[in-house]
Amino acid sequence: MADLILDWNTKINLISRNPPPTKDHVLNRHILPSVALLNTNLLPSPLSPTSSIKVADVGTGGGFPGLPLAISCPESDFTLIDSVNKKLVAVKSMADTLGLKNVRVHHGRAEEMKLAPSDRFDLILGRSVSSLPNFCSWVSPLLSPSGKLLYIKGGDLGEETRVEPRARVPISTLAGIPDVSDKDALLFTYDDVKRIAGEFKPK
C-alpha cells in the first residue's frame, strides 16, 4: 500500500510532500497509526480482524485510517467518505488494486448523507477532520444507536467539549512505537456523540 500512496502522491496531494515522503514515512506516520486502532486490549473499539460491522471513515483524504483497516478487517464493510473527488478516485483505485471487496467510496459531505436506520454505521472514524462538536454534528445522524465514534486528534479537549471520551489512548502507545504520532485515539458512544453535537454552534 505504501508504494501505491507514493505513486498517487506524485499526481495529487494525498499526504504532505514537504519533505518528500518516503516508504518508511508512509508506513510509520500513516499506515501503522491506522492499524494501531485495532489494539483492543487498550482501546475497547468494536473493530477487530474478525468483526463484521459497518464502518465509515469520514474525511478519509488519502485513505487513512480506512484503507489499512479494511485490509486488516476483511469481514467488515468500509465506506470511505470525502468531499474531494480526486482523492476518492485515488482511494478507489488503490482499493481495487489491492483487491479489497469490502471498500466503497462516497463523494460528498457527511452532513448531507441520508441513511435509513438499518443502514447506519456501527463505527465512525475520523482523523483530525474538524473540531469535535462540528464533526459530531455531521455524523450523529449516520451512527447506529449502539455504535461508536473513534476520533483521532491531539490537544486539549477541554477547549472543544465538556464530554469526556470513554477511552483516550495515545496512538504511539497503541502502536508500541514511541513518537509514531503525537495524536490520541478517542472513543465515544452514540449518546456522547449526540451530546457533543449539541454543543456545536453554527457561525
TrEMBL record:
A GO CC term attached to the entry: cytosol
Pfam short name (any one): GidB
Region forming the signal peptide: none
Any GO MF annotation of the entry: rRNA (guanine-N7-)-methyltransferase activity
Source taxon at top rank: Eukaryota
Keyword Plastid: no
Protein name as it appears in the record: Ribosomal RNA small subunit methyltransferase G
Organism per entry: Triparma columacea
